[in-house]
Inverse folding.
């Protein structure tokens, strides 16, 4: 598909409008830069929202979809509140991230992307988040040695949580869940179908 | 008025004046020094009873010079409007008690201030006459409208509705001007979402149906002489047939010429047929008649189009326009919609550096364009490369990188050049003298005719109205937009500043209203803006005149012609009563009945001058009545204090200052003189346009005068004051007081 995208043509803009949640708003940006100036994490982004919108219009498909920028959004909603053109910027950022992931273009080892997946998989098993496992998978993310180091760093916090019955070591073995987790998974499966159909229908 | 002069002085004790000042002493000053025949005090002079008291003296005692010692001349003007008398105001409230502290140790100097203002008002009264009509006037309700575009037609329809017969003179064979060439226009009504029907057909129909409007097509004004109320215009057709008609006032709505895109080879204009101007795209859209727009080179339906904003505009490059034409951004949005509305798949890109969509609906229209899928790219286009499809090279200003894009069609937004006629004699003089070392204002120059005149005025100052930067007819954007420097001639539309059709129509309504007003004013012998209603007018004493022509040259409004011997010939209704001619006259023979070298000169002489050892200096302030005097009043309202040694005389314009006032005041012992006028230059605020600038030039000579008197240069200072300089004016006065403390008192005291 990317070979079809000519620079400063509207192909990619149309693709975004068709596939990205709230993508039809991208053309409404007037390039004032208020979002870029409002984002508390802006300095850590390669391309602030304003620039992403211009890149979409300029047909920079690869640069946008492989970018790490929209993954940096923390959903603080500062930009949405301030955008004079009322673009749902936060949602567009998530929509773009989601679309990039669906296409397999999202940057590998992007921490936000990775953690979101772990969180989702963890929760899906039993319908509840297993905090112990979630925490450990986060600590051991970069291998065994650094995992041990990370765990030791947070040892005291862990002990306190256990004392206060906020976390149980037994969780390591199975852990608690919702009643009839199977039903939940059915619900989720159905939701996924609906969502997929919706994605299919974007822009149609 | 042959009658004996009789001064009646009326002292108000209201507003705290009676508490702060010794009214009995003021009264005795008025009778003893001011020679007032009658002097009365009142607790509340502006109320019905006080006004009645004055009126009774006018009616029964023959008082014909009324001196009101109360508030500023700018206050209570309705209450103190007496007929068949001259009116003089001693400003005891804003000029004295509000700017001085209420303390015992200041009482003496405060009272001195008030006494002086009474003496000054009486002196002015003594040397004033009641303005009489010149006999030149007569009402002529006919309005001449030059230009038959949407502006001209609107002006005609509006004036006609108000009962004023109009003549439209249009040089082409049809009405409608530039707007007639448009497929559709920028929307003027909510929701401002789509291009709107062209209004020309409806306007033409209305004009044709109006019996009060006469239309001259294929015609021009080949000569206009006279003055407001009695303009005589030669209207000549192409074939040469000429008729002369009389008019009361004129609206110039001569529009614009599109900028010549041939000056833009960098955009491949002329080389590539698919690079067109906005005007040419309108023709393509009209040809398409709602169908797909086809490009000129091969008739292919356009599937991608790039609009290049600011082509040859907002640029200091040789041959480019420095100004923003104000309508082209909205016009490009409109034109992009021509494509999008017909086929949403056409790619339309507008390359802009700053998108400017003035007018109430501008932002909505922009948004509507975006909704329709018009793409806006903030960029600078450097080049359009010729080819089967033109290629636009540009710098993306958001992504900060060079890029290029190919399109079927490129549209250049090239902007407007005003149709404002020939430069005036003064403009040419300035241009010629710019680098000549011997630059002398007012030198005679023959007018070069490389531009066709529009009005063909038979004025010695030039055939058209004066211009300002970028060739637009001069007008003050904010305060008095339609006024030109030729009274009775009002400009509307793009001839005076860049604008679109809707704005030009609104503008025309304003200009028509001003024209109607001036036709009436002229009939009554009254001044136009800013001294509207003033009945005084300048006259000169022929025996003293040396035919130096300074008055003719310096009059900002071209009001003065010359007779065969070179004597000035005043056209009363062209005159705005600024007094610049009076200030210009080296032999002081020009005066108004109620404003003359004497009315001011005698005021400054009436000031009681303490001796050199009194430690009571005197500072004379000549303050322009338009902005500086109001600023002083407002400073007083804000209770900002200034030196008790200040004596302020309002003047009509800095341009009316006679150098003799400076010499006289120095000779009579004033220690410092401050002149306050409006800002001059390109961003002038002078209500008489050139008055303050002219004065600044003249003031160069003051230095010599001071030198010949062996006085310090610091004693005379000129300031440009805006009406908002409320905090600055007291500071200026106080600084002068400090300066005098440092350099010492003037040695010229009696
Ligand atoms: S604040 Fe809104 S309009 Fe401004 S640049 Fe950001 S998205 Fe665009
Ligand atoms: S919501 Fe996202 S994009 Fe918007 S300001 Fe917050 S972090 Fe930045
Ligand atoms: S200089 Fe002023 S007062 Fe004198 S004729 Fe001209 S407009 Fe009138």
């Amino acid at each position: 598909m990317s070979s079809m995208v000519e620079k400063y043509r509207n192909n990619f803009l149309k693709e975004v409008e068709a596939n990205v949640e709230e993508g039809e708003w991208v053309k409404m940006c007037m390039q004032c830069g208020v979002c870029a100036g409002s984002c508390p994490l802006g300095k850590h982004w390669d391309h602030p929202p304003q620039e992403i919108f211009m890149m979409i219009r300029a047909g920079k498909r690869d640069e946008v979809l492989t970018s790490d920028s929209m993954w940096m959004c923390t959903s603080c909603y500062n930009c949405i509140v301030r955008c004079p053109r009322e673009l749902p910027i936060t949602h567009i950022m998530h929509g773009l991230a989601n679309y990039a992931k669906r296409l397999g273009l999202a940057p590998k080892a992007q921490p936000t992307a990775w953690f979101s997946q772990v969180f989702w998989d963890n929760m899906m098993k039993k319908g509840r988040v297993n905090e112990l496992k979630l925490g450990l998978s986060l600590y051991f993310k970069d291998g065994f040695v650094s995992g041990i180091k990370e765990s030791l760093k947070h040892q005291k916090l862990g002990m306190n949580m256990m004392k206060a019955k906020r976390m149980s070591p037994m969780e390591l073995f199975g852990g608690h869940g919702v009643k009839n987790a199977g039903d939940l998974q059915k619900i989720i499966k159905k939701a996924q179908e609906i969502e997929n159909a919706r994605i299919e229908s974007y822009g149609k | 008025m042959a009658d004996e002069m009789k001064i009646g002085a009326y002292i108000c004790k209201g507003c705290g004046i009676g508490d702060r000042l010794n009214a009995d002493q003021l009264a005795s000053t008025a009778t003893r020094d001011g020679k007032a025949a009658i002097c009365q005090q009142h607790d509340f002079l502006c109320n019905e009873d006080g006004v009645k008291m004055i009126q009774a003296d006018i009616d029964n005692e023959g008082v014909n010079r009324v001196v009101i010692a109360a508030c500023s001349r700018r206050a209570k003007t309705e209450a103190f409007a007496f007929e068949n008398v001259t009116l003089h105001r001693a400003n005891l409230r804003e000029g004295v008690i509000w700017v001085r502290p209420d303390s015992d140790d200041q009482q003496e100097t405060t009272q001195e201030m008030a006494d002086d203002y009474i003496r000054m008002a009486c002196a002015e009264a003594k040397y004033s006459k009641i303005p009489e009509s010149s006999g030149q006037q007569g009402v002529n309700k006919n309005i001449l409208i030059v230009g038959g575009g949407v502006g001209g037609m609107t002006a005609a329809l509006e004036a006609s509705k108000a009962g004023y017969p109009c003549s439209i003179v249009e040089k082409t064979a049809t009405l409608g001007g530039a707007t007639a060439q448009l497929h559709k226009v920028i929307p003027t009504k909510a929701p401002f979402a789509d291009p709107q029907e062209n209004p020309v057909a409806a306007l033409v129909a209305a004009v044709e149906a109006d019996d009060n409007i006469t239309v001259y097509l294929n015609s021009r004004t080949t000569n206009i002489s006279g003055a407001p109320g009695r303009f005589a215009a030669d209207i000549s057709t192409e074939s040469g047939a000429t008729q002369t008609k009389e008019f009361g006032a004129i609206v110039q709505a001569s529009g614009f010429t599109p900028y010549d895109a041939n000056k833009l080879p960098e955009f491949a204009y002329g080389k590539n047929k698919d690079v067109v101007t906005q005007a040419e795209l309108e023709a393509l859209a009209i040809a398409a008649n709602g169908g797909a727009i086809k490009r000129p080179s091969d008739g292919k339906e356009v599937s991608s189009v790039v609009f290049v904003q600011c082509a040859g505009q907002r640029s200091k490059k040789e041959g480019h326009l420095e100004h923003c034409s104000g309508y082209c951004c909205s016009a490009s949005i409109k034109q992009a919609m021509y494509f999008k509305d017909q086929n949403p798949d056409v790619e339309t890109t507008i390359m802009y550096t700053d998108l400017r969509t003035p007018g109430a609906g501008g932002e909505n229209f922009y948004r509507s364009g975006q909704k329709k899928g018009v793409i806006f790219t903030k960029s600078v286009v450097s080049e359009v490369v010729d080819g089967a499809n033109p290629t636009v090279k540009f710098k993306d200003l958001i992504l900060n990188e060079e890029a290029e894009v190919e399109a079927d069609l490129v549209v250049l937004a090239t902007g407007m050049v005003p149709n404002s006629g020939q430069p005036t004699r003064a403009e040419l003089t300035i241009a010629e003298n710019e680098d000549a070392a011997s630059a002398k204002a007012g030198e005679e120059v023959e007018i070069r005719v490389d531009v066709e005149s529009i009005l063909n005025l038979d004025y010695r100052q030039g055939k058209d109205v004066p211009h300002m930067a970028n060739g637009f007819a001069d007008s003050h954007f904010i305060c008095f937009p339609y006024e030109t420097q030729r009274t009775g001639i009002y400009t509307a539309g793009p001839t005076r500043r860049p604008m679109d059709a809707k704005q030009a129509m609104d503008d025309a309504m304003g200009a028509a209203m001003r024209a109607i007003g001036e036709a009436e004013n002229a009939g009554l012998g009254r001044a136009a803006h800013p001294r509207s209603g003033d009945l005084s007018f300048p006259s000169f004493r022929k025996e003293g005149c040396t035919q130096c022509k300074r008055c003719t040259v310096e009059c900002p409004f071209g009001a003065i012609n010359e007779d065969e011997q070179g004597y000035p010939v005043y056209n009363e209704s062209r005159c705005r009563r600024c007094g610049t001619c009076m200030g210009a006259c080296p032999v002081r023979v020009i005066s108004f009945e109620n404003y003359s070298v004497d009315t001011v000169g005698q005021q400054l002489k009436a000031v009681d001058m303490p001796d050199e050892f009194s430690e009571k200096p005197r500072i004379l302030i000549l303050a322009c009545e338009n902005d500086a005097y109001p600023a002083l009043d407002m400073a007083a309202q804000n209770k900002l204090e200034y030196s008790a040694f200040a004596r302020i005389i309002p003047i009509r314009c800095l341009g009316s200052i006679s150098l003799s006032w400076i010499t006289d005041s120095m000779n009579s012992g004033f220690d410092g003189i401050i002149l306050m006028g409006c800002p001059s230059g390109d961003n002038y605020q002078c209500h008489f346009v050139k008055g303050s600038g002219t004065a600044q030039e003249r003031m160069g000579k003051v230095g010599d005068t001071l030198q010949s008197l062996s006085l310090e240069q610091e004693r005379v200072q000129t300031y440009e004051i805006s009406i908002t300089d409320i905090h600055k004016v007291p500071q200026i006065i106080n600084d002068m007081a400090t300066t005098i403390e440092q350099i010492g008192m003037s040695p010229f005291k009696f």
In short: Chain A has two domains: 11-106, 111-200. Residues A 29-35, 49-50, 53, 83-85, 87, 89 surround iron/sulfur cluster (ligand 1) (CB under 6 Å).
